[in-house]
Amino acid sequence: MAATNKILALWSHPAGPKTIHFWAPTFKWGVIIANLLDSSKSPEELSYPQQAAIAGSALVWAKYSTVVTPKNWNLFSSSIGMAATAGYQLARKIQHDFSSTQNF
Description:
This protein is an all-alpha fold. It has one domain (2-102). It is built from four helices and no strands. It has helices at residues 2-12, 20-37, 48-67, 73-102. Helix 2 runs parallel beside helix 4 (73-102) and helix 3 packs antiparallel against helix 4 (73-102). The protein is elongated, with a radius of gyration of 18 Å.
């Protein structure tokens, strides 16, 4: 009975699956997956502006998700995931570029 109540509460939540507030952040996980798949790319193929834009906008959306009513934890978690994967890609790119310049 308790599980049914929790499912009904999620379904009826103002940021639940009946709203765009649920589905938009859910589809943002696709960007996170794509960024994780890019981990197999050479760091030379990564773009500073693209990864910086992903990280920056993700942090803005993470903050926004905590100040709106109702709080949108799905948006928060997907935004933190985007910022983390973009940060990882930026670190790979910086490390590669720094180590490449040291060899000259």
